[in-house]
Amino acid sequence: MKRKQPVSKLRPTPLLLLLLLVVMSCGDKPKSNFSGDYVIPKTETFEATTFENTQRVSSEVLNHLDGYDENTGTYTFSGSPSMIESLKTGTVVLFEAHSLRKIKAIRKENGKTIVESDPAMLTEYFKDATIQYEAPISWTRPEVAASKVTFGQPIATIAMPLMATLGDEGLGVKFERELKGWKVTFELKPEAGEKLNIELTAEKQHVCSIKAEGYISSFTSNASIVIENGTTQQFSYRNDGLEGEIELKFAAVGLGSEIAYLEIPAQIERTILVEGFIPVTLRLKANLKIFPEVAAGSSSQVSMKLAYNSNLGFSYQTGRVQPSGGMSSENAEQTGDCNTATAGIAGMGVGIEFPRFEIGILGNVVVPYLVLNTHTSSYLSTGLLDNRPCHEAKIKYDAHAGVSMRFLGVLSINNDYKLFENEKKWVAQGSHCGD
Question: Please, what sign has the CA dihedral across residues 147, 149, 155, 156?
Answer without folding.
Answer: negative
